[in-house]
Amino acid sequence: MDPRNYSKSETLKDGTAVTVRSIRAKDSNSVLEAFKGMDKESVHRRFFSPKKELSQAELKQLTDVDFSKVIALVVTIQSPKGELLVGGGRYALEERRSTHAEIAFVTSGDYRGLGIASLILKHLALIARKAGISQFDAEV
């Protein structure tokens, strides 16, 4: 399994068809748009502080991952304007050869409660198992 090219079709609890796929460096505009649409609570939950915008360095960190120490997935839907990013999640190894990874999720406000974080967790766990990772840690 190549996590850089991961892509699976899924369905949300309300029947919406989504794609769970690897994030790409070219997703930076989609990430910015998704961030602008996030409410203050979602931003605080993900970044543990108030934040009005993402810096270029933060945007690069979110979208340009190495897929060896960090695995990042997004959940997208097709809209009349094209692909719309509605959630994302990632895990980062605590050490290069660790069996533990830190995990984080974010879901756009309009899509909360539809199972996006659960889908991301399912797919990250699948990738992690194949990589020998046996435990996720998260701050809540």
Account of the protein in words:
The protein has 140 residues and is an alpha+beta fold. The protein is built from 4 helices and 6 strands. It has helices at 28-36, 40-47, 56-63, 116-130, and strands spanning 7-11, 17-22, 70-79, 82-93, 100-107, 135-137. A hairpin with a 5-residue loop joins strand 1 (7-11) and strand 2. The chain is globular, with a radius of gyration of 14 Å. The termini are far apart.
Q: Which helices and strands occur, and which strands form pairs?
A:
Blueprint: E1 7-11, E2 17-22, H1 28-36, H2 40-47, H3 56-63, E3 70-79, E4 82-93, E5 100-107, H4 116-130, E6 135-137
Parallel strand pairs: 5-6
Antiparallel strand pairs: 1-2, 2-3, 3-4, 4-5
Mean pLDDT: 86
Number of helices: 4
Structural class: alpha+beta
**Helix amount:** 25-40%
DSSP strand count: 6
Q: Which shape, going by the Cα principal axes?
A: globular
- The SSE order reads EEHHHEEEHE
Main sheet: which strands, in order across? 1-2-3-4-5-6
User: What fraction of the residues are assigned to beta strands by DSSP?
Assistant: 25-35%
Q: Biggest β-sheet, characterized? A: 6 strands, mixed
Distance between the termini: 30 Å
* Computed CA radius of gyration, to the nearest angstrom: 14 Å
Poorly predicted spans: none
Tags for this model:
140 residues, alpha+beta, six-stranded mixed sheet, 4 helices, 6 strands, 31% strand
Q: What is this structure, in a nutshell?
A:
With 140 residues, this protein is α+β, with helices and mostly antiparallel strands. The protein has helices at 28-36, 40-47, 56-63, 116-130, and strands spanning 7-11, 17-22, 70-79, 82-93, 100-107, 135-137.
